[in-house]
Amino acid sequence: MFSDVGGLEILTLIVMAIIIFGPDKLPKLIQDTMGFIRKVRSFADSAKEDIRSELGPEFKDFEFEDLHPKTFVRKQLMGGQDDPLGFKDMKDSLDIRSVLDDKPAAPVTGRTGGVGFEKAAAASSGPPLQPGERPPFDPDAT
Fold it and tell me: Where exactly are the transmembrane stretches of this chain (predicted)?
């Protein structure tokens, strides 16, 4: 929420607070604000505990963060597993750093039984390129 507020903005707010409220009233204002925040937190904690006690013992491990839509969908559709659909293997095989470093990517060995990188390269037309040789350029294809 406040991740985009920099040091200069905070310093400006402090200077403005000192100018507006004065150095005499500022400590009392900070103390009152902190007391209000503590009361709101204690109210929220007691409300959470009341809800947990009303739900019963079968919901003792219930967390309110689980009600966030993203977390709820992840737990309900994917069973709470880290990678039930195998996307981690696919993500690891598509390493962008190897493309940027001009190094060949790791071969894709998926569980789907599809054609791997080696078989697809062998099936392409034309002789294999020599090390350091640039691939042919087709201006009509680009």
Answer: 6-22
